[in-house]
Amino acid sequence: MNMITCFIPFLSVSHARQTVRTLRQCRRVKKIYFLATEAVSGEVGECEILPVDSLASCATFRSVASRVDTAYTCIYTTCTAFEPGQFAFERLSAIAEDTDAGMLYADRYLVKNGVRCPAPVIDYQPGSLRDDFDFGSLLFFRSSVLKQAVGAMDADYRFAGLYDLRLRVSELAGLVHVNEYLYAEVEADARKSGEKLFDYVDPKNRAVQIEMEAACTAYLKRIGGYLAPGFEPVAFDADGFEQEASVIIPVRNRIRTIEAAIRSVLAQKTSFRFNLIVVDNHSTDGTSEAIEKYTADKRVLHLVPERSDLGIGGCWNVGVHHPACGKFAVQLDSDDVYSGPDTLQKIVDAFYEQKCAMVVGTYRMTDFQMNEIPPGIIDHREWTPENGRNNALRINGLGAPRAFYTPVLREINLPNTSYGEDYALGLRISRTWQIGRIYDVLYLCRRWEDNSDAALDIVKMNAHNTYKDRLRTWELQARIALNARSPK
Question: Which long-range contacts (CB under 8 A, 24 or more apart) does 291-299 make?
């Protein structure tokens, strides 16, 4: 009956004693260890305090694996209180037996100000490579798989140990989502969705990101999904373009911001001809009338799609395939503005200098009044010419503003969605062509209450994350197939 060894972060003696009382109600729990990053004074029954340097290091998981002598291992990963549900461990054990899974994770409740709120998670798939994939805090391992995965660890990550572990487990056995609410945990991060989006590019997290990239790159090499440096050339010799560049703004009901966006484009100073294509997706709040005020300037095209089923990606396709689109198509969201009159010139120059099919710039986070807000400048320094396209499978975005060589864009097209369409395009382009980078601030990204990702509920967040994981899955499958055909 004693099938499970539990490892729990140590919070306090009183919390540890309460946790022991709770876990002892399950007869399948054989032993409980508390992981402590600092010295602990006080006794916790017969439980052992296990000193660790970090809750996410390779050294910690080596210590964990060496102490397990049961069929299953439960690791709780967050320094907050938790409460198992009725027969939770019995249920996990039963499903583990039925599925032969390497790791199981479950839906849970988040306790916010004493109130339990459902917090479901999503299914794991091959493209679930982002290091912030939400498994919840309760991870249930088949001990034999855990030991094998830990035994294969050949690095000493301080921050990426858990990430490395679950990638290695996924190579050995399935990661199974139990879509039942099996426990409750106190919410550790109460920020809105829009406030969490940029954690991975916050400069203070740079050391973490370097380790995560190394672990992901090693994984891609092991499974055949790694792409070595080497890209198809881009000649820029396509003709038939009257304009060198077109700025494309898809918009729907942005009366408060659209005029500032338009003015920032018309203020550009360039050595070449450019125009602005505003794809107005049937706005009803006065946005259409605001756009019309600028059409006296022959550089401004106001397009209203014939279709009524278009998302942001579909609106981009309308603009890109319009005969007036220039050789380079340059992004501007209807919420945002260019940082100065030289943005467009810098972007086009970068295409010719870096010989790439796509250029990504740097932006500054601001509030609605253009005042800088944390984390400030988002430069995506994690992108390197040598490994950027591999690391792109781990992160959730590539940066802004984005610009494209129009013939390539017309060949690929964007998915007709309003989330992830630019990421899908970046992944596909990076498989074949180089993506260039500009590290000057070109763009002011305004965060306000009407941003599409400002405060998503858990269902919408899960839908977004599932879609991006699916994009990564498809791209990973394509890269593995490409490598199989061309091993070099």
Answer: 291/251, 291/258, 291/262, 293/259, 294/259, 294/262, 294/266, 297/266, 299/266, 299/274, 299/275
The per-residue pLDDT for range 358-402, each reduced to its tens digit, is 999 999 999 988 899 988 999 888 788 899 999 999 998 899 999
Mapped onto helix, strand or coil, the DSSP state of residue 82 is strand
Residues 204-232 pLDDT 10s: 678 999 999 999 999 999 999 999 999 99
Say how far apart CA 128 and CA 149 lie, in whole Å: 18
Which two tokens mark 379? 């430069």
Burial class (CB in 10 A: 0-12, 13-18, 19+), 403: buried
Just give the CATH number of 245-457+470-485: 3.90.550.10
Q: What is the DSSP letter of 252?
A: S
Backbone angles phi, psi at 382, to 5 degrees: -70, -10
3-state secondary structure string across 443-486: EEEECCCCCCCCCCCHHHHHHHHHHHHHHHHHHHHHHHHHHHHC
Phi, psi of 84 (to 5 degrees): -65, 145
Q: 384 vs 229, 425, 436, 483, CA distance in Å?
A: 10, 18, 9, 21
- What tens digit of pLDDT does each residue of 69-100 get? 999 999 999 988 889 999 999 999 999 999 99
Instruction: Choose which CATH entry (3.40.50.620, 3.90.550.10, 3.90.1720.10, 3.40.50.150) describes domain 4-190.
Output: 3.90.550.10
